[in-house]
Amino acid sequence: MLRRLTVTAVASLALLAAAAPGATALPPVPVPLLPVPLFLDDPQDPWGQVGKGSPEGGQGGHGGQSPRGSQEVSVRMTVTVTDSGDPSADGTFELVCGPDRAGGTHAKAQAACDRLADAYAADENPFLPTPKDAMCTQIHGGPATARIAGTWQGRAVSAHLNRVNGCEISRWNNLIPVVPTV
Q1: Theoretical Cys-Cys bridge with 136: which of 94, 149, 167, 172, CB 3.0 to 4.6 Å?
Q2: What are its GO cellular component terms (predicted)?
Q3: Domains of the chain, residue spans
Q4: Of 2-11, 20-29, 44-53, which one has max mean pLDDT?
Q5: How many CB atoms lie within 10 A of CB 116?
Q6: Residue 12's pLDDT is what?
């Protein structure tokens, strides 16, 4: 945890110094090139290694070119839902999205792929966890939980969702229809 905080602090200071070079009295600090995870939601997998063995293997499906601006979406993930209140929504489902393709065993594969494509086009990461210092309303949204693991845009995804407070409910709702409406 301390290492993550140190890496985050060094990276933040470097970004601030680059954004406003005349506004800081500190000399530029070289930032070491360390593997920084995209998704830090899983304490058992803090560096996002889930999905490393998949065909995407962190390479993405973009042939070495920048995917930003293209309509290609690369998704291969497993969504496990429990206690949603709808027996047909509970279970483990595969979601596969690609160019002109949505499939797997997910009941709303096309809608889920469209939602993830919209998030990517908006440069939004719907899998990020709620910050530890977030002020959240103490509303309980029910016992539903979801576990999402796999790849999204060639990056490992490992996220755990629940509905224990307002922040987590919002996070869940942001991923509908990847996860069911409860």
Answers
A1: 167
A2: extracellular region
A3: 1-36, 49-174
A4: 2-11
A5: 26
A6: 57
